[in-house]
Design a protein that fits this description.
Elements: H1 2-58, H2 62-88, H3 99-109, H4 116-142, H5 146-170
Length: 173
């Protein structure tokens, strides 16, 4: 009986330790996902700003240039808020777009200037904002840190509005 009790106690202790390790790993994973969100958001914002600066010089249509200026203004403001949030959470943000986003920037810059407006609106108006809205919706629901969640919730309506604006632009000839 003593042997069975000792075995059961060891097994129970092992299960408790395993459970605690799993709990710590889950907490670390959530912390990583909040940091990952902030990093992805920073890259997306940087890409938007760079694409919109390019649009300021290359776009043909006045409404596209106006949209681009709005993107520069709004995304710069959000980037500043995100930098402050990340600093308070000890998260180091990337200073520019991802490699994929840099490739997309080159793609919209290539080709005939007459088609630039379409390329910009499609890639950095519609597609980039669809991706950003998904990213921020997920963080608004799943972020573990209250400040990160609040930032995502606060920023989301503006991104949804940008997406609506971009879709409106893409439907015009």
């Amino acid at each position: 009986m003593k042997l069975l009790t000792r075995f059961t106690t060891r097994r129970f202790t092992t299960l408790l330790i395993a459970g605690a390790v799993c709990g710590l790993a889950a907490t670390a994973a959530h912390a990583r996902s909040d940091a990952s969100f902030m990093k992805e958001a920073a890259q997306a914002g940087s890409a938007e700003i760079e694409a919109s600066k390019l649009a300021q010089t290359k776009a043909q249509r006045t409404d596209v240039k106006t949209f681009a200026q709005t993107m520069i203004d709004d995304h710069t403001k959000v980037a500043d808020e995100l930098k402050a949030l990340a600093a308070s959470k000890k998260v180091e943000l990337p200073t520019g777009p991802s490699i994929t986003q840099k490739g997309e920037l080159k793609l919209i810059d290539a080709g005939a200037d007459a088609k630039f407006d379409q390329r910009y609106v499609k890639a950095f108006g519609v597609k980039a904002h669809e991706d950003a809205v998904k990213l921020f919706e997920q963080a608004a629901k799943e972020a573990q840190d209250a400040d990160v969640k609040a930032f995502a919730q606060k920023t989301l309506p503006g991104l949804q509005h940008h997406l609506e604006m971009a879709r409106s632009l893409s439907s015009k000839p």
